[in-house]
């Protein structure tokens, strides 16, 4: 029987909201694991009001006080790692090894990083830039942050959005994806336990159509941050624009994976499989477009097909499982449909291309070679365990193909030639370019894209730009009543 869980977390407490009952489905079995009541637009009003009321005191806390709460939260999150893993695996179907070694420790490290970063916000040096004034910079918390997150990495995406905002002194209202609210609710409860004042971190669960729209377009928030698809991100931006609210958008991706002729072929093959299959390919930075030097093409395709053929698909709770299900049957059908149409558009399915005989929303690792540049699988986000491959003739052609996309989130270049590596990192349009690797992220470095992948940064000190305003304070140091510059305005005195 499905376990009833708290609906929302508002003003430091669990709240039973009055929306309809929603079942959280384990995509590995198709069975309900828990249920909760959805929030409504009225609950968004309550949560925003709680955040607004809590904001001044939290913004006024010293950096050391904010840091202490976040450090305690990092410790509590680490102590609750097993609970986070269990919730994440049951609501997303991601393999337990990924949740244990990537999602949860990465989230704890991120909280830990911001506990430190909260104490050293920097700005331009205070100085007498005009000669007659002392100019200084104040970096002030922007206010109430509304944030909306997706289902693929529910805990990490919540952490990336909420924690830097809290470190900066903001109050937050977050709406996780309706199908994956569990770890976000646990995070909020632990933040309270860590000493975060009531109302500073609120969670409203519910659908994008009702709760998401109400939150993104709320008059009383100051910033709207979003992680999700490009199509919805643009709607969120339009909702926020009604009140002129600033936005930060982390959107879709279609990462190129460029293998130059001098690359270490084995490393590129291993990297392509890992980069394409992470989180069952439901990763915005996943390698999706392998662009391979003609000389290496056949060996690359054969190598990737061989490694993909050994991937263990199955029960995500089993530590030996490599690939879990997709998030839902509907999403699996979308992925299967795109792969099924690929041969009509010139693609050759080398391996995979089918669902295994398992009850959940599984799909086999799939490699599609010889794809046409105009084909759907090459241009659109598939968000499944599918890698496409094309060849290139020379370096100019490789970089042209890498940039032949509206997205610009992540990319990788595989080469042993330092000049090629430098050129690729310079010329590929993306928020991150890896050299001889694909996927690793670290708390100290920013994540965020360009073009249809959005703008603004998560992680690292750079993310503070989203949550702080910069105020210039300019103080006269002359004490002179009739200032020299006044003559520009009224000359005859
Ligand atoms: P999505 O469909 O865009 O949904 C994202 C969030 O927006 C969900 O919480 C959703 O709510 C909500 N939402 C839907 N319609 C809304 C509206 N009109 N107004 C306000 N909120 C609304 O994305 P997804 O399918 O969950 O996630 C996959 C996408 O996220 C992929 O495109 C992936 O590339 C992207 N992503 C990007 C990054 C990055 O850092 N760039 C990271 C992870 C994922 P409900 O689902 O509850 O209805």
UniProtKB/TrEMBL annotation:
Aldehyde dehydrogenase domain location: 16-473
Q: Which residues form the active site?
A: 250
Q: Which major enzyme category is it?
A: oxidoreductase
E.C. code = 1.2.1.-
Q: Which UniProt keywords apply?
A: Oxidoreductase
**According to the UniProt entry, where is the signal peptide?**
none
Q: A single Pfam family, by name?
A: Aldedh
Return one GO MF term: oxidoreductase activity, acting on the aldehyde or oxo group of donors, NAD or NADP as acceptor
User: Would you identify the family this protein belongs to, as annotated?
Assistant: Belongs to the aldehyde dehydrogenase family.
Q: What protein am I looking at?
A: Aldehyde dehydrogenase (NAD) family protein
């Amino acid at each position: 029987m499905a376990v009833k869980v708290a609906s929302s977390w508002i003003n430091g407490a669990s709240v039973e909201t009055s929306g309809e009952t929603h079942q959280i489905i384990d995509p590995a079995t198709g069975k309900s694991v828990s249920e909760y009541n959805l929030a409504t637009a009225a609950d968004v009003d309550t949560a925003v009001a709680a955040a607004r009321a809590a904001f001044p005191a939290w913004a006024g806390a010293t950096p050391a006080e904010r840091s202490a709460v976040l450090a305690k939260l990092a410790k509590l999150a680490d102590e609750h790692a097993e609970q986070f893993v269990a919730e994440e695996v049951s609501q997303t179907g991601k393999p337990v090894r990924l949740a244990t070694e990537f999602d949860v420790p990465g989230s704890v490290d991120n909280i830990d990083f911001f506990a430190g970063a909260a104490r050293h916000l920097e700005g331009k040096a205070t100085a007498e830039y005009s000669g007659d004034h002392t100019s200084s910079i104040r970096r002030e918390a922007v206010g109430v942050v509304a944030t909306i997150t997706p289902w693929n990495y529910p805990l990490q995406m919540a952490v990336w959005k909420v924690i830097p905002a809290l470190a900066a002194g903001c109050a937050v209202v977050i709406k996780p994806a309706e199908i994956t609210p569990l770890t976000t609710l646990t995070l909020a409860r632990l933040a309270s336990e860590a000493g975060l004042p009531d109302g500073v971190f609120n969670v409203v669960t519910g659908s994008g159509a009702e709760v998401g729209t109400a939150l993104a377009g709320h008059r009383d928030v100051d910033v709207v941050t979003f992680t999700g698809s490009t199509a919805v991100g643009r709607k969120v931006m339009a909702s926020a624009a009604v009140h002129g609210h600033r936005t930060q958008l982390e959107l879709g991706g279609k990462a190129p994976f460029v293998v130059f002729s001098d690359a270490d072929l084995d490393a590129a093959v291993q990297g392509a499989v890992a980069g394409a299959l992470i989180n069952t390919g439901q990763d915005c930075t996943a390698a999706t477009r392998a662009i391979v030097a003609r000389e290496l093409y056949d060996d690359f395709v054969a190598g990737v097909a061989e490694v993909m053929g050994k991937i263990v698909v199955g029960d995500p709770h089993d530590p030996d499982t490599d690939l879990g299900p997709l998030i839902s049957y509907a999403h699996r059908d979308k992925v299967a449909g795109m792969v099924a149409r690929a041969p009509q558009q010139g693609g050759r399915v080398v391996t995979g291309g089918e669902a295994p005989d398992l009850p959940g929303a599984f799909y086999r690792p799939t490699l599609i070679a010889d794809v046409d540049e105009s084909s759907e699988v090459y241009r659109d986000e598939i968000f499944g365990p599918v890698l496409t491959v094309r060849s290139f003739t020379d370096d100019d052609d490789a970089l042209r193909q890498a940039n032949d996309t509206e997205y610009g989130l992540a990319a990788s270049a595989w080469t042993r030639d330092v000049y090629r590596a430098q050129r690729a990192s310079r010329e590929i349009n993306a928020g991150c370019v890896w050299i001889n690797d694909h996927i690793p992220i670290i708390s100290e470095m920013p994540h965020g894209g360009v073009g249809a992948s959005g703008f603004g940064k998560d992680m690292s000190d750079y993310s503070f730009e989203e949550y702080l305003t910069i105020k210039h304070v300019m103080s006269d140091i002359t004490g002179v009543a009739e200032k020299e510059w006044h003559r520009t305005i009224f000359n005859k005195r």
